[in-house]
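In response to the reviewer comment on reproducibility (Comment 2.3), we provide here a single inverse folding case reported in full, input and output, so that an independent group could reproduce the run without further information from us. The structure tokens appear first.
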């Protein structure tokens, strides 16, 4: 029987993981906003993509179902990519699969606000109004944080699965490098995203 090559945390692999993790937040952000943009274009709106928001002129002409589809398109992309990533990283661990799997961590960004911790320097905190999840809850006539809680309930066991999928001997190193990379990428995106996408 062919022996399966086991992943190990060599310096090269950790550098690769760091590079992929730095890209994770900007790529996820663009995919999320791009999905809103494409859904809106699909409904014939002359949408335009900016760093802070997607402009949706004429959205008031659309039905609630169409608006819901535009808003839900963003988180849907996060969940689809993340769930595929989780399946792949469980089958076999690689840094690429790990950074795709963590797209399921999207609702974790709301946790600090729900716990009452305000960390505005990470672009978190403040009000959750205007987030995709709160807008979806409004359109579905649910309590404002219903969709966020639903996502968190789904996310927490998946994060446990992701941690378990990291080879046991190098879990601390992998999760530290990944977290540092993701936070650095997000900070960099907050600083530079406005220049790239005015
Ligand atoms: Zn969005």
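Designed residues, in position order:
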């Amino acid at each position: 029987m062919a022996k399966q090559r086991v992943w190990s945390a060599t310096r090269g692999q950790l550098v690769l993981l760091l590079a992929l993790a730095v890209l994770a937040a900007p790529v996820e952000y663009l995919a999320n906003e791009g999905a809103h943009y494409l859904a809106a274009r699909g409904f014939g709106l002359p949408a335009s993509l900016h760093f802070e928001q997607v402009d949706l002129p004429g959205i008031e002409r659309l039905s609630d179902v169409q608006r819901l589809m535009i808003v839900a398109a963003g988180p849907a992309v996060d969940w689809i990519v993340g769930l595929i990533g989780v399946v792949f990283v469980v089958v076999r661990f690689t840094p690429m699969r790990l950074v795709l799997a963590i797209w399921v961590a999207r609702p974790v960004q709301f946790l600090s606000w729900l716990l009452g911790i305000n960390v505005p320097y990470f672009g978190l905190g403040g009000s959750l109004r205007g987030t995709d999840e709160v807008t979806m809850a409004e359109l579905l006539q649910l309590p404002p944080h219903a969709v966020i809680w639903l996502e968190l309930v789904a996310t927490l066991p998946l994060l446990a699965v992701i941690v378990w999928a990291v080879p046991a001997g190098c879990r601390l190193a992998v999760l530290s490098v990944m977290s540092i990379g993701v936070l650095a990428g997000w900070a960099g995106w907050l600083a530079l995203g406005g220049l790239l996408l005015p």
